Hints:
InterPro entries: AB_hydrolase_fold (IPR029058). This is Alpha/beta hydrolase. A 3-stranded parallel β-sheet has the order 1-2-3, sandwiched between helices. It is globular. By secondary structure, the chain is mostly helical. It has 8 helices and 3 strands, in the order ααβαααβαβαα. 49% of the residues lie in helices and 10% in strands. β2, α6 and β3 (124-129) form a beta-alpha-beta unit. The protein has a single domain, classed as Alpha/Beta hydrolase fold, catalytic domain (Rossmann fold, 3-Layer(aba) Sandwich), CATH 3.40.50.
Amino acid sequence: MATARCLRRRSAAARLNAACRAVSAASESPQSWDALLVVSSFANLEQVMEAQVPTRWRAASAALLPFMDMAQWLHGAPGVSAMQPQQWARQVSIPALIAHGDRDRFVPLQQGRNLYTALASPRKRWLTVPGGGHANVLATAMPLYAEMSGWLLETLPTQRLASR
Protein backbone atom coordinates (compact mmCIF):
# COMPACT_ATOMS: atom_id res chain seq x y z
CA MET A 1 0.00 0.00 0.00
CA ALA A 2 2.86 2.41 0.68
CA THR A 3 3.96 1.98 -2.93
CA ALA A 4 0.48 2.84 -4.23
CA ARG A 5 0.34 5.99 -2.08
CA CYS A 6 3.78 7.00 -3.27
CA LEU A 7 2.76 6.49 -6.90
CA ARG A 8 -0.32 8.66 -6.53
CA ARG A 9 1.78 11.35 -4.91
CA ARG A 10 4.45 11.12 -7.61
CA SER A 11 1.74 11.56 -10.23
CA ALA A 12 0.43 14.65 -8.43
CA ALA A 13 3.88 16.22 -8.73
CA ALA A 14 3.97 15.75 -12.49
CA ARG A 15 5.42 19.16 -13.15
CA LEU A 16 8.49 18.53 -10.97
CA ASN A 17 10.45 16.30 -13.28
CA ALA A 18 9.24 14.27 -16.23
CA ALA A 19 12.34 12.07 -16.11
CA CYS A 20 11.64 11.29 -12.48
CA ARG A 21 8.13 10.15 -13.42
CA ALA A 22 9.51 8.06 -16.29
CA VAL A 23 11.89 6.18 -13.98
CA SER A 24 9.03 5.59 -11.56
CA ALA A 25 6.73 4.27 -14.31
CA ALA A 26 9.44 2.00 -15.74
CA SER A 27 10.09 0.55 -12.28
CA GLU A 28 6.42 -0.13 -11.56
CA SER A 29 5.29 -1.59 -14.90
CA PRO A 30 8.21 -2.54 -17.15
CA GLN A 31 5.90 -4.55 -19.41
CA SER A 32 4.31 -1.27 -20.53
CA TRP A 33 7.57 0.19 -21.84
CA ASP A 34 10.16 -0.84 -24.42
CA ALA A 35 12.93 1.50 -23.26
CA LEU A 36 13.73 4.39 -20.93
CA LEU A 37 15.47 7.55 -22.11
CA VAL A 38 16.36 10.17 -19.46
CA VAL A 39 18.06 13.54 -19.99
CA SER A 40 19.49 15.75 -17.20
CA SER A 41 17.79 14.10 -14.28
CA PHE A 42 18.77 13.60 -10.66
CA ALA A 43 19.20 10.53 -8.48
CA ASN A 44 18.20 12.23 -5.23
CA LEU A 45 16.41 15.60 -5.11
CA GLU A 46 17.37 16.34 -1.52
CA GLN A 47 21.07 16.09 -2.42
CA VAL A 48 20.56 18.38 -5.44
CA MET A 49 18.87 20.99 -3.28
CA GLU A 50 21.55 20.75 -0.58
CA ALA A 51 24.23 21.38 -3.20
CA GLN A 52 22.48 24.63 -4.19
CA VAL A 53 22.49 26.01 -0.63
CA PRO A 54 25.59 27.94 0.50
CA THR A 55 27.57 26.03 3.13
CA ARG A 56 26.81 28.49 5.92
CA TRP A 57 23.04 27.92 5.45
CA ARG A 58 23.04 24.11 5.15
CA ALA A 59 22.17 23.42 8.80
CA ALA A 60 19.16 25.76 8.61
CA SER A 61 18.17 24.26 5.28
CA ALA A 62 18.28 20.72 6.70
CA ALA A 63 16.06 21.83 9.61
CA LEU A 64 13.46 23.14 7.14
CA LEU A 65 13.29 19.96 5.06
CA PRO A 66 10.58 18.24 7.18
CA PHE A 67 8.39 21.34 6.79
CA MET A 68 8.95 21.34 3.03
CA ASP A 69 7.98 17.67 2.93
CA MET A 70 4.83 18.38 4.93
CA ALA A 71 3.87 21.28 2.66
CA GLN A 72 4.24 19.02 -0.39
CA TRP A 73 2.24 16.27 1.34
CA LEU A 74 -0.59 18.73 2.09
CA HIS A 75 -0.74 19.50 -1.64
CA GLY A 76 -0.89 15.80 -2.50
CA ALA A 77 2.64 15.77 -3.88
CA PRO A 78 5.70 13.82 -2.76
CA GLY A 79 8.09 15.50 -0.39
CA VAL A 80 11.60 16.47 -1.38
CA SER A 81 13.06 13.58 0.62
CA ALA A 82 10.82 11.10 -1.24
CA MET A 83 12.06 12.13 -4.67
CA GLN A 84 14.78 9.52 -5.11
CA PRO A 85 14.69 8.05 -8.62
CA GLN A 86 17.84 6.07 -7.82
CA GLN A 87 15.69 3.92 -5.51
CA TRP A 88 13.17 3.23 -8.29
CA ALA A 89 15.96 2.66 -10.83
CA ARG A 90 16.95 -0.48 -8.95
CA GLN A 91 13.80 -2.10 -10.35
CA VAL A 92 14.22 -0.85 -13.93
CA SER A 93 15.05 -3.83 -16.11
CA ILE A 94 14.25 -2.41 -19.56
CA PRO A 95 16.96 -0.89 -21.78
CA ALA A 96 17.88 2.61 -20.61
CA LEU A 97 19.86 5.57 -21.91
CA ILE A 98 20.87 8.38 -19.55
CA ALA A 99 22.32 11.62 -20.97
CA HIS A 100 23.63 14.53 -18.91
CA GLY A 101 25.48 17.75 -19.67
CA ASP A 102 28.92 18.24 -18.16
CA ARG A 103 28.17 21.91 -17.38
CA ASP A 104 24.82 21.48 -15.66
CA ARG A 105 24.80 24.01 -12.78
CA PHE A 106 21.44 22.88 -11.40
CA VAL A 107 21.71 19.09 -11.41
CA PRO A 108 25.35 18.02 -11.06
CA LEU A 109 26.70 15.47 -13.53
CA GLN A 110 27.33 13.07 -10.63
CA GLN A 111 23.59 12.96 -9.93
CA GLY A 112 23.01 11.66 -13.45
CA ARG A 113 25.85 9.14 -13.03
CA ASN A 114 24.34 7.96 -9.74
CA LEU A 115 21.00 7.40 -11.45
CA TYR A 116 22.72 5.49 -14.27
CA THR A 117 24.67 3.33 -11.80
CA ALA A 118 21.49 2.49 -9.88
CA LEU A 119 19.71 1.11 -12.96
CA ALA A 120 19.25 -2.65 -12.78
CA SER A 121 19.08 -2.96 -16.56
CA PRO A 122 21.92 -4.94 -18.12
CA ARG A 123 21.30 -2.92 -21.30
CA LYS A 124 22.03 0.64 -20.27
CA ARG A 125 24.05 3.42 -21.87
CA TRP A 126 25.55 6.64 -20.50
CA LEU A 127 26.13 9.77 -22.59
CA THR A 128 28.00 12.82 -21.35
CA VAL A 129 27.06 15.91 -23.36
CA PRO A 130 30.13 18.16 -23.66
CA GLY A 131 29.24 21.79 -22.92
CA GLY A 132 25.67 20.84 -21.99
CA GLY A 133 24.02 22.82 -19.24
CA HIS A 134 20.64 22.04 -17.72
CA ALA A 135 18.68 24.24 -20.13
CA ASN A 136 20.70 23.69 -23.29
CA VAL A 137 21.70 20.02 -23.11
CA LEU A 138 19.64 19.27 -26.22
CA ALA A 139 21.08 22.23 -28.14
CA THR A 140 24.84 21.76 -28.08
CA ALA A 141 27.37 20.87 -30.75
CA MET A 142 26.94 17.19 -29.83
CA PRO A 143 24.35 15.54 -32.09
CA LEU A 144 22.39 14.26 -29.08
CA TYR A 145 19.14 13.74 -30.98
CA ALA A 146 21.00 11.58 -33.50
CA GLU A 147 22.65 9.62 -30.67
CA MET A 148 19.32 9.04 -28.95
CA SER A 149 17.58 8.11 -32.21
CA GLY A 150 20.33 5.66 -33.12
CA TRP A 151 20.14 4.06 -29.70
CA LEU A 152 16.36 3.71 -29.96
CA LEU A 153 16.66 2.11 -33.41
CA GLU A 154 19.23 -0.37 -32.08
CA THR A 155 17.27 -1.08 -28.91
CA LEU A 156 13.60 -1.22 -29.85
CA PRO A 157 12.22 -4.41 -31.36
CA THR A 158 11.97 -3.95 -35.13
CA GLN A 159 8.55 -5.59 -35.35
CA ARG A 160 7.16 -2.93 -32.98
CA LEU A 161 8.70 -0.16 -35.07
CA ALA A 162 7.24 -1.54 -38.30
CA SER A 163 3.73 -1.71 -36.85
CA ARG A 164 3.68 1.93 -35.70
